[in-house]
């Protein structure tokens, strides 16, 4: 039973939309940059923006999949999802870093 739940959670977070992998990289870079502006006020460099944006897209896609059909989204929906997830990711990282200092 637990294996099915883990598989379902993984499937929710990694659903591929109509954008494709190259689109995810482009959207990831844009989303990471936007999230950096929202949370910290500055970007983190293109490579880190891509990583933050792609991981953010997975987080945002997972969270939104409980409410919406995320697989049907196009470029704009994927960008919104990635920015949402990246902002959440940067907020959590910021909270952890503040506790260490």
UniProtKB/TrEMBL annotation:
It comes from the Bacteria. It is found in: Cell membrane. Belongs to the UPF0410 family. It is a multi-pass membrane protein. Keywords: Cell membrane, Membrane, Transmembrane, Transmembrane helix. One of its GO terms (cellular component) is plasma membrane. This is Transglycosylase-associated protein. The chain crosses the membrane at residues 21-39, 46-68, 74-96. InterPro entries: Transgly_assoc.
